[in-house]
Design a protein that fits this description.
Elements: E1 17-18, H1 30-42, H2 54-64, E2 71-74, H3 77-87, E3 95-99, H4 103-111, E4 116-124, E5 127-130, H5 132-142, E6 146-150, H6 162-171, E7 175-179, H7 183-186, H8 191-194, E8 203-208, E9 221-225, H9 227-236, H10 244-254, H11 257-279, E10 285-286, E11 293-298, H12 302-311, E12 314-315, E13 317-319, E14 327-332, H13 336-351
Parallel strand pairs: 1-12, 3-4, 3-6, 6-7, 7-8
Antiparallel strand pairs: 2-9, 4-5, 8-9, 10-11, 11-14, 13-14
Bound molecules: 4'-deoxy-4'-aminopyridoxal-5'-phosphate.
């Protein structure tokens, strides 16, 4: 029986609904758009871009309140991850990470023929959680070449505790990447722990402008690390990896921090409401999240879910959870009306009896 309350929103035909890439659904307001238009008209595109993205690095250093020498910029956070795998090419040892986690870690491990060891995120009555001691034990057991921890974790949305991250950084015999792609949604950056202290030489904090800042199309990621490590990564970075327009555009948008924060506030509100609504549906469960996506278990099998979503042109990400048979979906948080469209679809399935159940059928 359907318990959800949202049912008055009409389904909007086959307009695609992208809830699969954890993008920000809000586009830029008119004022930065106008500034961007002017940049596009004036930029000297016959010239190469400034190779070290110095002005943008200064703006990012200001945003994270650190020194410019500690910032490296990549063509998306993905490029920085690529550089990190490249930097380790001569070192032996596996990658130690979580399961599930950001799919790019396993993709890069395959490309670089790097073994991957994973500590599973478990699901119990309290939701998703990591057995921290098991992870600490795995460091000693596997002697990894690099540790990759996304915080908040993609796809479960859980945040790892600062005390746990601090222990990992202290104990690790290798680089520790704390991937904070979604940190604006959760707060509590690991950077805060080390701002006043000596920055650990093995810590790299990965960030991106693709999520809270809504600039996925520009392809801009950055990392904060010890300045020696930044120099090492800089030496293997492709020259001019950040094009001139992206450099300029990002500088403009970083000036609209209040706009970004208000969008983050809205998305968190929509997310929490969406979780409540899903949990009102029989057989469905949505889990708490500290990011702009939510893990959901569906009472239906994957094929039924896929058929239904494909027919409605709705895109989500299906997730394999180790040792679990349920159908897990990661649903990115869109605008309110987009989430209502998704919910209406599920509600309608519950309301309409299937053909076999109809009287006289
Ligand atoms: N880290 C995590 C955990 C992500 O989910 C993503 C993108 N989905 C990235 C890094 C990379 O983001 P981008 O390349 O867009 O900067």
């Amino acid at each position: 029986m359907n318990k959800a309350s949202i049912s008055c929103f009409p389904l909007s035909g086959t307009t695609p609904l992208f809830l699969d890439k954890n993008e920000n659904p809000f586009s830029l307001p008119p004022s930065p758009r106008e500034e961007l238009r002017q940049i596009l008209c004036q930029a000297p595109l016959n010239r190469y871009p400034e190779g070290r993205s110095s002005l943008l690095r200064a703006k990012l250093a200001d945003y994270v309140k650190t020194d410019e020498s500690q910032i490296i910029i990549g063509n998306g956070g993905d490029e920085i991850l690529y550089l990190l795998f490249l930097a380790l090419i001569d070192q032996s040892g596996p990658i130690l990470t979580l399961e599930p986690t950001f799919s790019e870690y396993s993709h890069l491990s395959r490309i670089f023929r790097r073994e991957r060891r994973c500590v599973p995120i478990e699901l119990d009555d309290n939701g998703f959680n990591l057995n921290e001691e098991a992870f600490i034990d795995a460091i000693a057991l596997f002697s990894p070449a690099m540790i990759l921890l996304d915080c908040p974790n993609n796809p479960t949305g859980i945040r790892l505790s600062s005390s746990f991250l601090r222990r990992v950084i202290e104990l690790a015999p290798c680089l520790v990447i704390v991937d904070e792609a979604y940190v604006e949604f959760s707060g509590n950056s690991i950077i805060d722990l080390f701002r006043e202290k000596r920055w650990p030489s093995n810590l790299i904090v990965l960030r991106t402008l693709s999520k809270a800042w809504g600039l996925a199309g520009l392809r801009l990621g950055y990392a904060v690390a010890d300045s020696d490590l930044v120099s090492d990564l800089d030496s293997i970075r492709p020259p001019y990896n950040i094009n001139a327009l992206s450099q300029e555009a990002a500088q403009i948008v970083l000036g609209y921090r209040e706009w970004m924060e208000s969008r983050v506030f809205s998305l968190r509100y929509i997310r929490d409401h969406f979780i409540q609504e899903i949990n009102r549906l029989d057989g469905w469960e949505a889990y708490e999240s500290e990011a702009n996506y939510v893990m959901v278990t569906s009472p239906w099998d994957k094929t039924k879910m896929e058929t239904l979503l494909t027919a409605e042109n709705i895109h989500v990400r299906f997730i394999e959870m180790p040792g679990r048979k349920e159908t897990f979906l990661r649903v990115s948080i869109g605008k309110e009306e987009e989430m209502r469209r998704f919910l209406s679809l599920l509600e309608d399935q519950e309301e309409v009896p299937s053909f076999k159940e109809m009287p006289g059928a």
